[in-house]
Amino acid sequence: MDEHAGHSMDHSGHGGHGDHAAQFKDRFWVSLGLSVPVVFFSEMFADLLGYTRPDFPGASWIAPVLGTAIFLYGGRPFLTGGWAELRSRRPGMMLLISMAITVAFVASWVTTLKIGSFDLDFWWELALLIVIMLLGHWLEMRALGAASGALDALAALLPDEAEKVTPDGVTPVPLHMLAAGDVVLVRSGGRVPADGTVVDGQAEVDESMITGESRPVSRAVGDSVVAGTVATDNALRVEITAVGDDTALAGIQRLVAEAQASSSRAQALADRAAAFLFYFASGAGVITFIVWSLLGELDQAVTRTVTVLVIACPHALGLAIPLVIAISTERAAKAGVLVKDRLALERMRTIDVVLFDKTGTLTKGEPAVLGVAPTAGVTEDELLALAAAVEADSEHPLAKAIVRAHADSASRGQLVATGFTSLTGRGVQAVVNGNEVAVGGPALLREYGVAEPAELEARIAEWKSQGAAVLQVLKDRQVVGAIALADAVREESRQAVDALHQRGVRVAMITGDAHQVADAVASELGIDEVFAEVLPGDKDAKVSELQARGLKVAMVGDGVNDAPALARAEVGIAIGAGTDVAIESAGVVLAADDPRAVLSVIDLSRASYRKMWQNLVWATGYNVITVPLAAGVLAFAGILVSPAVGALLMSISTIVVALNAQLLRRLDLRPDRLTR
User: Which pTM was predicted?
Assistant: First the structure.
């Protein structure tokens, strides 16, 4: 049984939670207005409060007529939902409510028409039961609609129009008129209308809607920007590379939609619990009716049976799991964690080991200067400046790393090189301040007939043991120093590994790099186990190897050559979204390339699972305890629960479950907070 399946079968024809919320809201207010005179003119209610009802012609028909209107109008969603559940042979909450109000309706008309000697005037209780159940469903649908609003929030991130750059100036155009290759102007404080590449300008860009990271990042010429992000301080000109459904934002919207539509094993658990309660309630209702009838209390038999059916409605149970999942999915999306498969989120709490792909995940996937070793008489800044001047015109990744390192250093001024020449397979050469300067590896030294200086041997040997690439810098054919470059380890990786260990989770690393390179990174980060020199096609075999030891594995990779391993693991996590958000092999996609986001998935999984069980225990335990009370097992002690009180208690139970689920919103999933 799925409570929401019952809702979706309602005659309204609308599919969204917002439509259902509006429907229940309208029916609630109309039914509430009609219920006031029904309750006021109820003989039972008047006797209860000790007032005299007005007596005029037709007064006795106010409760039956308005009560019937409430039953047909306010009770219609429950009646149609119950009938749908009956036809599909999937009894659930809607059927229980429809049974309860139908029994009360029939019993009340029997009394009104004076058929037999029954005193079963339930009009006021019927009215309150329907009103309270409508209120509960309205609150539930509104809560689910708010949780589903993550999609609307994402859609709202796009501007209404873009400023297209044309030969005649800047022209505002609707987003659907943009095409790849167009150039748009993004003003300071404006949102990027589509994915693209910066062709002019530099700005701090707020990418929190994609990455969950609150700190803006610098974007300049050549850098990619994503639709929906904000240029916070300066204007940018962006050449469009993807529009519409091809943008990263559209991909995120699809993932969130898939996550909110997907079924859940925990939801199946709630369904089984609700089915159990249906049979439990039905059995209890039959036994209650028989026992009270045998005691000669036919009025009590009907009253108790109706109350049992009211109390047993698994209203809170139907809300317990869906609301937790909807809120957790929304929280995850806001933290830059895109849950494609809810089962993946649920499994994450059981993970024993997180297996990280090294390149581009634990490391930046691009070379960076690891160390600088000058010979006597030369400073590190001077050596780096010489090398950067020569490498300035080179497109090689190692050259770019040296230039970048020099730009980031504290040295002042920049040397200018002329006569740049690329020495294929050996290095590069140029003239700097009248001196011939060359940068290259062992092949360059052999060509020049120059030996490695003895004073650098120990340092160079240490670098090579770490798997670093070592380049020599020669000035007028004499070695003046060496520079080591390696794939830079992310600072966030160290924090992620430490925090995973604190949570009792082992960390393993897999890479195609040589053992010495992998071991150096593992040693630096404190990783528990290393798989090195692994071919892309063999990565899933390593996942299987871990699983064969009885470990539950979460695989974290870039989603390209890691696809088989991501699919093999209990949880596949693709890291680094951008325009790659639609990676099919992963159950979870991290919008940023920050490995600390794995902690968000674990913490959210554990927190949401706790909430699911708290709600399940509350909902089912509440029913198991209150149904016998409704049946009248304590009648001898004067404790009897009326249907209206039963409805009120059940709605209170629903509110408790909803508030408990809302506590998930207090969970702080920002990566920098999770590693403290």
Answer: 0.61
- The phi and psi torsions of 160 (rounded to 5 degrees) equal -75, -30
The span from the CA of 436 to the CA of 431, in Å, is 5
Tokens 């024993």 map to which residue?
352
End-to-end CA distance of the chain, in Å? Answer: 42
Question: Which tokens belong to 510?
Answer: 């897999």
Strands 195-200 and 224-225: what pairing? antiparallel
103 touches 309 (CB < 8 A)? yes
Q: What is the pLDDT of residues 543-573, one digit of tens each?
A: 999 999 999 999 998 755 576 788 788 998 8
For the chain, which residues make up each domain, given as ranges? 3-153+257-329+610-664, 161-192+195-242, 330-363+490-598, 364-489
Nearest to 539 by CA among 562, 515, 518: 562
pLDDT band at 579 (very low <50, low <70, confident <90, very high): very low
Establish whether 562 is a catalytic residue. Answer: no
Question: In this predicted model, what pLDDT tens digit does every residue of 498-542 receive, in sequence order?
Answer: 999 999 999 999 987 778 888 888 988 999 999 988 876 688 889
Greatest Cα-to-Cα distance within the chain, rounded to the nearest angstrom: 121
Fold of 364-489: Calcium-transporting ATPase, cytoplasmic domain N (3.40.1110)
Across 610-639, b (16+ Cβ under 10 Å) vs e yields ebbebbbebbbebbeebbebbbbeebeeee
Pick the residue with more confidence: 366 or 511?
511
CA distance 440 to 457: 16
Closest CA to 316 of 179, 66, 137, 540: 137
Percent of the chain surpassing pLDDT 70:
80
Which of 357, 487, 540, 562 is catalytic? The answer is: 357
